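Hi R.,

Here's the chain you asked about this morning:
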Amino acid sequence: MAFKDETVVLGNHTLFIGRHSSGKTTLLRALDLFFNHTLDFEDVRNKKRDVVIECSIDEETYTKVFTPPYYTFDAHKSHGAFEDILDMHYLYLPVRPYPLSHFVNQCFALNYTPRIEEMKTPDLKHFEQGTFKGTIRFQTRPYYQLAYPETLKDKEKKHLRVKWLRTLSTGKLILGADELEKSIDFDNLKDILNLSYQSLFVSRQKRFINAFPYRVHPLYKSDIEREMTTITDPMHKSSIFLLVEGKYDVPWFESGLRLLGKETDYRVIPSGGSGNLKYVNEQLAKAGYKTLVISDGDVNVPGYSLNRDIIELYVDENFLRKAFNVTFKKQPRNKHQFFASINEKDDIIKKVLSRYATYHLYLDHPFVKELRSILEDFEARKGLNIT
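And the predicted structure, written out as tokens:
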């Protein structure tokens, strides 16, 4: 796999761009392993170590561990209320050729997934203590042998995939597609977005990338300074790039833009740290792109800065108390006080609080009000008529 240990913040709908071996396919396959327990052994770097995948869904964390040599699911090492996400179905469209009939059978079988109440099992403690009495009833997901002639043209196959996606009526569909343009016709892009609860796509085609109305997430094989073409090659110059410091800042700005009705006017781009903001901005400006830089208050770079030292200082104290079991005698005024008061690694704090931004921002939130003020000033200065 392209990642040894990596955290990726996802939106409701996300399209990944990046060079070869930057991790795009790895992410989609990791989710296939998490939801469907499907693994290609060639994806595993170290055959002696566990594969651990942690997903945060609706503010709850689910961790699955798969142990060598066969990478079977290890229930003892895993944790999370998995019965709560049984209604989520991940359907993966790989880039490599695979029979249309396989995709059709996947769709058909998803419509006959057992209901959640039929999937629950007694507490394992009853088995360990020998106190369980009764029988366990369980159902398995069927596989139906529906076939289409493989002589169908690609365009016909693409339309059939959309047709079958429309048949899915149960649960929440998470659709992952590697090189989306090879599986779905461009004219059906909006259709499949509407059909899926969440979508995670990879594309190399410019018109797919620029027409995608949600998060476009660049992944870098090394660092952004060496890979500016990851952004510039596929993206039209009509986009306004809102440059922020890091990946955990992205949910804040995307949620704020959505609340302000401007999510389609700006592309939020993480710059890989405050030290890269100036360089990335200069390179994009040279290439003729419109940019807006918004940094934390403790960073001195050209552009706009937030009033508070770091974006995490906009989090409600009640949420901090619940998430980290911390009580402040005095509200932290800078990032040093903030991180010192929470007994957890900085990266974990940022990851948890990025979920706050996804679910708890509102129109009159201090961060959103400040973002609105910045955007109004920026648009007035640049003479932009964005409504």
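The CA atoms of residues 66 and 73 lie 5 Å apart.

Let me know if you need anything else.
M.
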